[in-house]
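User: Please run a holo structure prediction.
Assistant: Happy to. Please share the sequence and the ligand.
User: Here you go; the ligand is copper (II) ion.
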Amino acid sequence: MSPADRLLGRRHVLRLGVSGLGLAALGAAGCGSAPVRTARSTVGHVDFRHALHIPPLAEPTRVQGDDGARLTFDLAAQEGRAHIVDQGETLTWGINGDHLGPTLRARRGDTVIVRFTNGLSETTTLHWHGMHLPAEADGGPHQMVEPGESWEPSWRIAQPAATLWYHPHPHGETEAHVHRGIAGLFLLDDDEEEALDLPREYGVDDIPVIVQDRTFDAQGQLVETSHRNNGMLGETVLVNGTADPILEVSAERTRLRILNGSGARSYAFGFEDGRKFAMIASDGGLLPAPVRMERIMLTPGERAEILVDMEPAEEVVLRSFPQDLGLTRGMADSTGSGDELDIMLLRAAQTLRPASALPSILARLEALEETAASTVRGFELRTNRINGRSMDKGRIDEVVTAGTTEIWEVWNDHGQPHNVHIHDVQFQILSVGAEPPPPELAGWKDTVYLPPHERVRLIMRFSDYTSTEIPYMYHCHLLWHEDQGMMGQFVVVAPGEEDDVDVAPRLGDDGSAPREPGPHGH
Ligand code: C2O
Ligand code: CU
């Protein structure tokens, strides 16, 4: 049996991609017409030679209490220099270091306190992507931290084990601040995940894989490339800030926690030899059961945890294959979705730590029922606006009542690629177009791809943390679209406080009359 066949002792129907689009290779790569950026392949051209950097685990001060620990993390954003490419040292930004940030780790029930200091020369923020927490701790555009100033959010971890992440969120500058190097993982643990026989030794058989595309100039400096339609694309793919990375594999089974930390580029990750892997978790935590797959598509901001099996002394390349994002050819070329990119070499040792049987059940996933939803809201994404409006920090777009379940219908009303990310909650996907979600989209999610002219229905529960004043965000996570204003704000209020909020009326198609939730025909 091949390692891939051994990975799961059962057959699983492979359903890749969204809405029947599939992740099939575009096939036409490399023949675009004149001004359009044609698809690129780096297959066989990446000279893997740098040991993959493993971001250090942040070391909080820790006070054990009766019901969880109090963890205090000290984080400082700073300017630095990193040796990434041969051309020269790159001027970068980082947290507690030159480039990127440490991995934060906390357990369900712990109280987290972050003492964040902005040592940069620009105002920034630090946002905890995927975290359920009070709006004032969210680190969105309402929690700006001036140069030299500090900010000290605190909250209790009240959600399942998951791979979350953090990044700046200053309105209009998010893409640039992430591009220069501020990002890191925030891992959550809990008893349910810990009871499973899964690889979990950080940096040994449980590996952070932060994937970001960058372009370097002849001196090794980061280039802010043209935005075209969707934001900056880079030519060199970094993993955890390492170019040409090699992961030395020491176990038969390795867990990769993959984050698409890029601004605009999507990836369809798989292995060069077509070996299958088991996906065990999506954005918000474990899937109900492992899903055996050949490719996993991640758009900006999305995460997947996968298990890959290797034989002793074996080598295999993690690659990104062309994706079918449902775009026209010209649009596909300007997003890089036709590109085929070698990402990282996995090189197995002569002797590997043996793997035990993969659990067949991972988590109990309580399905949120449509009938429990008290409100259905509609969100139309088009031309960097949501429901016809551009982000305004002074405007509340939606008022949500704590303790309720809602359905958000989000649709992409034009030909550009978008995704949607909602702060504060993890959601479940009811449908993508007319179809139920494929298995990789059937767990907890906070970010999901929106194909052109397609509708995605999401269900979520807003449990607690109320404020009539401080909003949470929802937005496209293609960072340049977000910076251009493809973002809105909602508050979560206590029952009975709805009328205390001065909420902006919805616009109709003519920009005046209030519109009903739900898509209009086209
Ligand atoms: Cu990852 Cu509102 O952001
Ligand atoms: Cu977008």
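Residues 1-36, 511-522 have pLDDT under 50 and may be disordered.
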